[in-house]
Amino acid sequence: MEERVYHVKGVEDSGFYPRFDYLFSEILEKDYHGKEFGFSDRVLATRCIDMDAVEKDGGGVFDRTMDCVVGVSDYDEAHSKHSRHRLMMVEMKLGCTGFSMKPGYLRDKVNHTLELLSGKLVDGARCFIFPKRVIGDAKRRLSQWKRGSDGELYKEWVFLQPAEYNDFLHFAEDYPYTPVTDRLDIENTFKDGGFFSADIQKIVKVREYWLSLALEYKYRGVVDEYDHIVGIVGEIVSSLVNEMEDGDDKELLKLEFQI
Length: 259
Description:
This protein has helices at 9-12, 24-31, 41-44, 51-57, 103-116, 132-147, 162-168, 183-189, 200-219, 223-243, 248-256, and strands spanning 4-6, 21-23, 47-50, 68-76, 81-92, 122-129, 157-160, 169-170, 191-192, 195-196.
């Protein structure tokens, strides 16, 4: 199953923003006053479209819809960019003491929500969130539905408890940048015979090489790689200059490199 990374643009571009825009915590509060059920702070802070409010505004019956849709996207870690923004359906059934729901009842919620979202890009996942005491039975029942004659209808349905939803919905900070350039490769270019060089011309030349390469990454939109290279080069050059004997050359380099 594909990973889904939260991004508010899907909500902002939905056509229902900002009129029906709410925090996930606000949607939760409507039915479960004062309870957070273990949802993480960042999930509670996600912005969603209240589909019950959309339905009610159109004169419909609010219990025919999923509770909300949240904006998700694909995410390119290298360029720190979100793409293919879409809306993911979420329904909370956190007051359940047992699982006795019929597939048709939940399917109607999905289908009517799809009608309200006509023309918009909708994520395949249909998330139903149950309390911990019910989730085991719910998952077993969903597994049976998926193995049934109309199992294809439930292929991308997911039954989750709140703690699992915390992990199911990803965030950009879950994808730390992995540098392309190795620190050792940078260090070795400043060395002669295995030791850091004190040759001023070499320091200047090597520094210019790496900063030029860093700028190429920046122009290509890979800002994290630019910051990575510039940070390492700055550390090395500062250390080399500070270890030089006092004199005009040292002061000139400190001024030029803003050390």
